[in-house]
């Protein structure tokens, strides 16, 4: 792996520069995605249509598209010889990243019950994103990110870690609620209840937004901030779309429930 990067980049400074450029590109893509999502929903799940390509089994799609975000970073960490990979703060942040993607790629897909097939276009975009972002986040953390020795005791890191943990727990719990809405053999949609769904329609999306925002605060880098911004754009749009869909479909949908931010929005 080290030989590969030596062959691709003329120096570590060049690779570090490329990683920064990738972060700004991700922020630009967040802006472009925001404009696109003003006119159309992300085409998967209840918004899937055939015009975005042939359908891919939902379990297979989630497993394959998320797997690069786990496998590639594993290789990056194992093959990294940089001193940063052994620093406490770096290890904490890398562990936070893996905690999400071990669940998302190796556990979550096999817990899905039913679910509409994913259009190939959405599947392919997610696959490419997981490669791109997996390399961006973990290569930076394992090879380049430098933190003060006491960074894990810094208020920013502590606050970021707490936010990340709360977001991760909300995300996992909300997914659990959604999976168990229907009894075996039942079809159709139901109103989710319990947990943060008592306050917002997009509880699972809120959890993931908070999770990566906390990660960005703890990691304190343009790389992690770009990821948090992109996550916010995509998932906040989806939360709003879900909220409108629930209100239109269910006459008895709780009117006090907001789309994404409890009591506010």
TrEMBL record:
PROSITE patterns: S5A_REDUCTASE. The keyword tRNA processing does not apply. Its main location: endoplasmic reticulum. Keywords: Differentiation, Endoplasmic reticulum, Lipid metabolism, Membrane, Microsome, NADP, Oxidoreductase, Sexual differentiation, Transmembrane, Transmembrane helix. GO terms for biological process: androgen biosynthetic process; cell differentiation; sex differentiation. Its EC number is 1.3.1.22. One of its GO terms (cellular component) is endoplasmic reticulum membrane. Residues 117-265 form the 3-oxo-5-alpha-steroid 4-dehydrogenase C-terminal domain. It comes from the Eukaryota. It is a multi-pass membrane protein. GO terms for molecular function: 3-oxo-5-alpha-steroid 4-dehydrogenase (NADP+) activity. The keyword NAD does not apply. It is an enzyme of class 1 (oxidoreductase). The chain crosses the membrane at residues 21-39, 59-78, 90-112, 118-135, 156-174. InterPro entries: 3-oxo-5-alpha-steroid_4-DH, 3-oxo-5_a-steroid_4-DH_C, SRD5A/TECR. Belongs to the steroid 5-alpha reductase family. This is 3-oxo-5alpha-steroid 4-dehydrogenase (NADP(+)).
